[in-house]
């Protein structure tokens, strides 16, 4: 039992370590809303020097900035909506990075990308979010059937060095009709020879006129895992502690008796 708990705690430590690592990357992490786990740690970082007693600790902030610059920043989150005939059919909040090894390129989807070529009515059952910026075009092609909505094709056209098209046409981000897809845990999807790193994604298509924001959220499994980790960790620590105290108590109770009988 104790061993199991310790194991779980170690695993949690590993996962949690991975989660908090991107935190150190940049100042701008305070801008996007993102996950609640980032806030406590970042405030801890900033308050710990000021809380420590002497005036001499004023140098600390400068040393914490040093490691920040060595890590690449994460992409800023952008928000897009597609509206036709007064109906906003597509909503998207995205923080995404593309890596194209063959062209040695790392591209952050710009929050300033335009969505003007998007469409609410490619067909009765398909819509498209088309984001354009400088030298790339990102397209999410949505489709719905009787029960679900999903992205049926993600494509990324990059034409800086030489035009290249990368895509993945497996069903992705599937939710029940009317719901939105949300994932805040960094994950990646291969688009052929390119890789799409997703830091934050919330998507909804086929929204109707009466909706003013994202519909009911369906959160990705990775998020659920991360969300579950903290309660599990606390429970584990408590259980471990309780058992430890119990064992110590039992030993303490036993040992004097042995002492008496042996004497
Ligand atoms: C961090 O923020 C400071 C000021 O707020 C700015 O001068 C510095 O360039 C930022 N560093 C990074 C890596 O964004
Ligand atoms: C600490 O700061 C206060 C006010 O800024 C100052 O009066 C005091 O001399 C400082 N103490 C030391 C040890 O620097
Ligand atoms: C869109 O909504 C505005 C205000 O609600 C209304 O004045 C306008 O006529 C609507 N346009 C269409 C095409 O429905
Ligand atoms: C990618 O960039 C690195 C360093 O900038 C360089 O050494 C390498 O040759 C480049 N590779 C390609 C395929 O351009
Ligand atoms: C987006 O546009 C704003 C204002 O035009 C500009 O300040 C900002 O730097 C741009 N961001 C990016 C990532 O290009
Ligand atoms: C699309 O929907 C319209 C109105 O609901 C209908 O008249 C039309 O037949 C549909 N087209 C297809 C291809 O299903
Ligand atoms: C997905 O998009 C790419 C790029 O536009 C295209 O070549 C491919 O045929 C599309 N796949 C499907 C199933 O439509
Ligand atoms: C498309 O994405 C799926 C799910 O991540 C992955 O299994 C598949 O290999 C990808 N296909 C391509 C062509 O990259
Ligand atoms: C993309 O990958 C395929 C095999 O998966 C390979 O044959 C092709 O040369 C690659 N293209 C580039 C531009 O690297």
TrEMBL record:
Q: Residue span of the signal peptide, if any? A: 1-17
* Transmembrane feature ranges: 229-252
Keywords from the named record: Cell projection, Cytoplasmic vesicle, Disulfide bond, Endosome, Glycoprotein, Membrane, Signal, Synapse, Transmembrane, Transmembrane helix
Q: How does it sit in the membrane?
A: Single-pass type I membrane protein
Show the InterPro entries listed in the entry.
Answer: Lamp2-like_luminal, Lamp2-like_TM, Lysosome-assoc_membr_glycop
Q: Where is the composition biased (Low complexity)?
A: 31-71
Q: Which residues form the Lysosome-associated membrane glycoprotein 2-like transmembrane domain?
A: 230-260
Primary location class: other
Q: Where is the stretch described as Disordered? A: 31-80
Q: Where in the cell is it found?
A: Cell projection, Dendrite; Cell projection, Growth cone membrane; Cytoplasmic vesicle, Secretory vesicle, Synaptic vesicle membrane; Early endosome membrane
Q: Which family does it belong to?
A: Belongs to the LAMP family.
Domain (Lysosome-associated membrane glycoprotein 2-like luminal) spans: 76-207
- Report the SS bond pairs: 183-220
GO terms for cellular component: late endosome membrane; lysosomal membrane; plasma membrane
* Stated role: Plays a role in short-term synaptic plasticity in a subset of GABAergic neurons in the brain.
Protein name in UniProt:
Lysosome-associated membrane glycoprotein 5
Task: Enumerate the Gene Ontology biological process terms.
Answer: establishment of protein localization to organelle
Q: Where on the tree of life does the source sit, at the highest rank? A: Eukaryota
């Amino acid at each position: 039992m104790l061993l199991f708990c310790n194991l779980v705690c170690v695993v949690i430590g590993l996962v949690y370590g991975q989660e908090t690592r991107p935190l150190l990357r940049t100042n701008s992490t305070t801008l996007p809303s993102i996950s609640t786990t980032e806030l406590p740690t970042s405030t801890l970082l900033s308050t710990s020097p000021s809380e420590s007693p002497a005036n001499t600790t004023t140098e600390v902030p400068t040393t914490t900035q040093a490691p920040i610059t060595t890590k690449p920043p994460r992409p800023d989150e952008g928000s897009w909506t597609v509206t036709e005939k007064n109906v906003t059919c597509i909503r998207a909040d995205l923080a995404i990075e593309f890596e194209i090894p063959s062209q040695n390129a790392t591209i952050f989807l710009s929050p300033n990308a335009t969505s003007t070529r998007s469409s609410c009515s490619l067909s009765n059952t398909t819509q498209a979010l088309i984001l354009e910026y400088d030298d790339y075009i990102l397209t999410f092609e949505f489709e719905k059937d009787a029960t679900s909505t999903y992205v049926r094709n993600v494509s990324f056209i990059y034409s800086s060095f030489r035009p290249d098209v990368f895509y993945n046409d497996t069903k992705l981000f599937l939710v029940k009709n009317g719901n939105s897809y949300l994932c805040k845990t960094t994950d990646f999807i291969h688009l052929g020879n390119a890789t799409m790193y997703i830091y934050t994604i919330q998507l909804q298509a086929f929204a109707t006129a009466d909706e003013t924001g994202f519909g009911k959220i369906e959160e990705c499994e990775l998020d659920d895992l991360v969300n579950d980790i903290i309660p599990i960790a606390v429970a584990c620590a408590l259980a471990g502690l309780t058992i430890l105290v119990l064992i110590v108590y039992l030993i303490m109770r036993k040992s004097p008796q042995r002492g008496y009988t042996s004497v």
